[in-house]
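Re: the 360-residue chain
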Amino acid sequence: MNPAIKVHLTKLFLWVEPPRFQAWPELLLRLDANVTYPTTASVAKAAFGFQPDQAGNVKFDEVVFNLPGWGKTRSGEPILRGIGLLEKRNEGYAISDAGRTLAKLYHSNSASSEWKAFLATLLLNREPRTRVMMQLLVQPDAVLRFAKPSWFGGRSQDAILELPGTTLQPFLPKSAKDTPFHHLIQNRAKWALGQWRNEPEIQRADEIFLVGAEAEAFSLNDIGRALRGSLELFLNLGLVAEAGGEVTWQAAMATQILPSELLADLGAPIPTQLSPEQLIFRCIRELSGDNGFLVFSELRQHAVAEGIGDPDQLVDSLIHQGVIDLVAHDYGQPIHGEGLLGDPRKQLVKFAIRQHSTPI
């Protein structure tokens, strides 16, 4: 029987400002790809010119805290420092193949989604707390609900992750120890390591225990802010959507952005393959109220999440083809957003689907 292995896990600290996920590729582009830096502090200094204080520390060196990946402690035990954009080399740190790829994709076209999708894939393959959080959120009917009806509205520690049959507070305050989220991660320890499971000592181990970098308990310190960085990236890509403070996984968009093997590893549901027209029919049926009206901006949001590039043009085309009828329309309120084809008179719309339309 192979022994149980302890894996040390450093605290999670991504980019300083959660919405600025471009901070990592920008940092990598400031480094010399042919240089091995002696410490992560020297990486931060090389990238940003930070000057050491009297104690020898570099201010804000946390910006590179989770860039290294798999390594060893001084006593030779495995430690996971981050997602591996830097790799250990000759007792120092150099840009890894993953780091070079991210920097190249960003440099080639910083406005594209390609580098964002690559970064999201790395996080979902290599960051244990992010992996467990998203494994829960991809479940059917799972909802991350904030205290106030907006993106990260209210105190993060009051957010609730609602799952079939249970609820969880994933973003507890700094002082919280031994939380349900700790237990969920620990119970999935080997799975949570993701691609790091390919490391030889992990492959040989029957059981994995996650411990802190120095203490026995691994850190979930300020986890709400830490995970917000990943969630901001996922929101930008359309992997999650938010409405009224409720965050849900967007399965159809995920199949277009993430590798199929990663989705299978997360246990993400594979959506039924429907045509764009069928998706519009489904949106109409699901979003229409008792009076038959729906808010067109909500239909647009749902359709985009399902991978439809221009819902307005598709709906307009279906109307002109006689596939659906625009029975009535009306002005809404500012909260109802932009109407069909930008027409404020069509913020609220009522459709009728012709009987000969393909059923779903």
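The chain has a mean pLDDT of 88.
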